[in-house]
Amino acid sequence: MSNLLKIDNIEKYYGSRSGLTKAINNISFEVSKGEFVAIMGSSGSGKTTLLNCISTIDRVTSGHIYMNGVDITKLKGNDLNKFRREELGFIFQDFNLLDTLTAYENIALSLSIQDKGYQEIDKLIKDTAKKLGITHILNKYPYQMSGGEKQRVASARAIITEPKLILADEPTGALDSKSSKMLLDSFNYLNDELKATILMVTHDAFTASYAKRVIFIKDGKIFNEIIRGEKTRKEFFDEIINVVTLLGGDLNDAL
Amino acid sequence: MMLFKLAFKNIRKSVSDYAIYFFTLVLGVAIFYVFNAIDSQTAMMKVSESTRDIIDLMLNMLSGVSVFVSFVLGFLIIYASRFLMKRRNKEFGIYMTLGMSKGKISKILVVETFLIGLLSLVVGLVLGCALSQVMSVIVANMFEADLTEFTFVISTNAIIKTIIYFGIMYLLVMIFNTISVSRCKLIDLINANKKTETVKLKNPYLCIVIFVIAVVMLGYAYYQVTGNVENLRETWQIFLPIGLGAVGTFLLFFSLSGLVLRVLQHFKKFYYKGLNSFTIKQFSSKINTTVFSMTVICLMLFVTICVFSSCMSMKNAMTSNLQELAPIDIQLLKTKNIPREFIEEYGYSEEQINNSYISIEDDLNSVGFNINNYYKDIVGINTYTTPNLTLKDTLGSTYSYMEEKYPFMTYDAVEEIVTVSDYNKAAKLLGLDTYTLDSDEYLVIADYDNMVSVRNAALGLNTPIIIDGKTYYPKYDKCKDGFLVISNSHINAGVFIVPDDAVSNLTVEDEYMYANYKADTEEEKQEIEDLLLSKSDALLNIGSTISAGTRLSIYEGSVGLGALVTFIGLYLGVIFLISSAAILALKELSEATENKERFKMLRKIGADEKLINKALFRQIAIFFLAPLVIAIIHSIFGIMFCNYILETFGNESLLLAIILTALLLVVIYGGYLLITYYCSKRIIKE
Predict the structure, then answer these.
(1) Rounded to whole angstroms, what are the CA distances from B378 to A108, A222, B570?
(2) Is residue B547 domain-shared with residue B613, that is, in the same domain?
(3) CB-CB neighbors (< 8 A) of A97 in chain B
(4) Angstrom distance (rounded) from CA A167 to CA A157
(5) Domain stop point among B535, B552, B569
(6) Does the model's ipTM exceed the 0.85 cut?
C-alpha cells in the first residue's frame, strides 16, 4: 500500500526560550492508504497537538508533514483552507455541529463551501445518510439529537467530501458506551467498505482497540507501536491495556 | 487600589467590547454639548433684534429637547451597560469562585463605570468643542450673520450642563449594575457560556397568518394617514394608525424570520450555496430572539426619518417660498371706515374711528413720511365686504357637508371682495396672473390648500354668489392661485374677485398699498425700513391702524424659523439614529463570542477567510438593514402624512430633504455598521 501521510521528524515547542515546553519531541511515522490508525496517550502527552499539526490548525516548529508527497507545513492562507476543505475530514470530540442548522444543513455545508450544486449535494447526503443510518434524523437540530447521533452526523459531514484522510479527535469522548460502540462500528464500516483512511486520537483503550494499528505517545515521543494483525478485537484490547499499564510509568518510577 | 487596577485592566482587556459603547458615549456627550453650546456660539453674532428673539426661542426649545434627549441617552447607556455585563458573566463567576464578595464586584464595576464615564466625558467634550466651532459656522450661515470676527468659543455653561446630565446617567448605570450583580447566582455565571441554543422554529402556517395580519394592519394604517387622511378630524384619531403601525411592525418582525426562512429554503440552489444556509439561519435566529428590540429600533428609525426630512423640507420650503410669496419690499394695510358702534363693541378709540377715513398716503404724510420720496412702483387697491356674503353663503349646497366635516371653521366670517381691475393692478406688481370677468362672473383666488379644496367643492357645482342683489357665477370651477398679503407661506384662504361695478354700493373694508423701496443695496433698503419703523409711535398717536409686512422682516422671521426646525430636527435625528444603531451594534457584538465558536467550526471544515468574512458582513448588514428597510417603507407614508399637515409650507423641496436624510442615515448608520463589522471580525479571528 502506498504512503498517504508521512510525518518526518516533527517538533512542536510552546512558550518562550526561558520556559520551553516540548509538546512534540521528534516524532516520525507513516500512514498508508486505507489504514485505520489510533494514536493513544494520556492527557498532556501531545497527541492532540500532533493531530492539530497534521490538520494544519497548528504549525510545527520543525520537521515536515507530507500528504501524498506535498509538504503541507509549507502551505499558506487559502491554500491551507483548500487543503483542509478538499483533502481532510474532521470528527471532533464535541461534534462541532452548528446549532442553528439541521443535520442535513450541517452536512450540506461542507459540500456547499466546495461550490457543489444542490442536485449533487442532495444525492450525496442521502447516500451517506443511508450508510450511516441517520436518514431519520436529517431534519433534526443538534439539540434534538443524542450524542451518538450528533457524532454520526459529524462523521457523515467528515466523509461526504471523500477526503483522503479522516482525522478524529477523541470521537467517543463525549459518548456513552453504547453510542461509542455504534460509532466505532461505523468507523470500521468506513474503513473496510469505503476504504477510508482514518487517523484517530484517543486516550481510551476500548476505542483504540477498533483500529488496525495503535501508536502510543508519551511526553511528546513515540513510546510504542502495536499492530492488530489477525488478532481478535478482544486480544488486541488486552494487548493495548498491557502497553497502557507500561505507559503509566510515573508510578513505577516512583517505586 | 487593587480594585482600581483590576477595573483598569478589565477595560483595557475588553477594549473591543467597549469600543462601540465608548464610541456611543463620546458621540452622545459631543452632540449634547454642541446643541447646548449654540447659546454662546450665537451670543457673539451681530444679528437684528427680531432674529435675536427667534434665537432665544430656539435656545429655549433646544434646552427642552435636551431633557428629552437625556432620557433617550440615559436609557441607551443603561441598556448598553447591561449588555456588556452579560458578556462578562463568566469573569464575575471566576471572581466569585475565588471568594470575592458581590460587594467587591460591584465596586469594581463602579470604578469601571467611573473610569469610562470620565474618559468619555473628556473625549466627548473635546470633540464637542471642536464640532461646535463647525456648528457656529452653520448657525451663522443660517441666520445670515456676519462671521468676520470668528472666535473660538467654549461654553462653560454647556460643559457644566453636560457633566451634570451625564453624571446622573452614569450614577444610574452604577446603581443598575450593583442591583444586577447582587441578584445573580454563581451557577448561572459559571454556566453562562455553555448555554446551547435551542432553535425554536415557529409554525410556518402561524407565521403566514400573522404575517398577513401584520400586512393588513400596516396597510390599513398607511391608508388612514394617506388616502383617508381627510377623515382624520380629531386628534385622538391619529393614535389609531400609530398604534396599528406599532403593533403591525411587531407582528411583522415576529413572523418575518420564519417566513423568510421558509421562502428561501424553497430556493434550494440559493440556499445550499456557499455559506448561505448558515447566514440565513443566523439571521433568522437573531430576529427571532430580538423581535421587541427590532420593533423599537424600526420605529425609532421611522421617527428619525420623518422628523428629520419634514424639518428639512419645512426649512427649505420656507426659504424658497419667499421669492414667490414676498416678491415686493413692502405691503401696507389699513382698515378703513370703522363704524362708530365698534367703539363699544371692540374697544376702538374715537381717534381710530376718525383716522380710519384717511388714506394710507395721507396718514404717512402727516407723520412726515412722504411715500414718493422712498417708494416706487406704488399700487393701491381697496377690498370690500358685505354682511350678505359669508363663507357659509359662498359654499351654497356644500355647506351642510362641510360643516359636518370641518365643524370648527367660522362659517359666518365675511368674505373679502376685490374688483377685477384693482386685483389686476396688484397682480401685475406681485407677478401673479391677471384675469378678465364678464358682468355676471366671479372668481376666487386662494393658495391655502385645505381651503382651496373646500372652496373647489362649491365652485365645481357652479355655486352662485349674491352681492348687492345681483347674482354672479364662478368663471372657473377651481380656485386660482394668488394672494393679497405677502408672507412666507401659502396662507391665503380666499379672496373673491368680481366685476368692477359689483362693489359700487359697498363700503371699503381695507386699503392695501404695495411698493418697492427706492434703494439699490440691502443697507439702503434697511434704512428706509427703519425710517418707517421709527414713525410707528407717531402713527399710533394719531390713531392710525396701518400695519405693514415687509420682505425683510418676513425673510428674517422665516430664516429664523427655518433654523429652529433644522436644529431640532438635526438634534433629534442624530440622537435617535445613534441610539438605534448602537443597540444593533451592541446586540451583534454581544453575540460575537457565540459566533466566534461557529466561525471557528466553519474554518475547521475548510471555509475560506474570504467566504467567512463575506458571511459575517452579510449577517451584520442584514441585521442592520432589516429594521431600516421597514422603517423606510413606514416613512414613505409618514412623510406623506407630515406633508399633508405641513402643506402650508409647500413641499417643493421634499427631494432635497430626503437626500439630506439619506446622507445622515448613511453616515451614522453606515458608520456603526462598519465599526460593528470590523470589531466582530477581530473577535472571530481571535
Answers:
(1) 85, 111, 43
(2) no
(3) 601
(4) 12
(5) B552
(6) no
